[in-house]
Design a protein that fits this description.
The protein is of the alpha+beta class. The chain has helices at residues 11-23, 49-54, 69-78, 83-88, 94-107, 109-115, and strands at residues 2-6, 29-33, 57-59, 65-67. Helices cover 42% and strands 12% of the residues. It has a 4-stranded mixed beta sheet, with helices on one face.
């Protein structure tokens, strides 16, 4: 079982997790919104908040943490339809390219949301104004 910690105030992040959840037929991934007050954030105290807000973090059952592109790639391995893409993402050069593409989008995600005309409800309060 994997646990994916994501920014629920980000429309791109939220819709991506919803799509992955729909493909998770075997229920191998538990998606946790970092902004969900009902969740016990003490469980993730080893991870700092700034890092968590910068990119998705995926924890496996052994406690190994996969962040950003590596986390996204790790989740694909668990999905029946994601496995072929997981294999492709292990081709030579894909790690460097994937990390750069992930960081580019992650740093600009709230601006991209805005350009697409989508704003998370919590952004009205200014919580999405600036990312680390």
């Amino acid at each position: 079982m994997l646990r994916a910690l994501y920014d629920g105030n980000c429309v791109i992040c939220k819709s991506t997790c919803e799509n992955l959840r729909a493909l998770d037929w075997l229920k191998r991934i538990d998606f946790v919104d970092l902004h969900d007050q009902a969740d016990d954030s003490e469980r993730y105290s080893i991870l700092n908040r700034e890092s968590l807000m910068r990119e998705i973090h995926v924890l496996d059952s052994a406690g190994v943490v996969f962040a950003g592109f590596a986390g996204t790639r790790r989740m694909l391995k668990e999905l029946p339809l994601g496995f072929p893409l997981w294999l492709l993402l292990h081709l030579p050069g894909m790690n460097a390219l994937g990390k750069r593409a992930y960081r580019f989008i992650a740093r600009r995600r709230y601006r991209i949301n805005k350009l697409l005309g989508r704003r998370a409800p919590d952004c009205a309060a200014g919580s999405c104004a600036r990312l680390p």
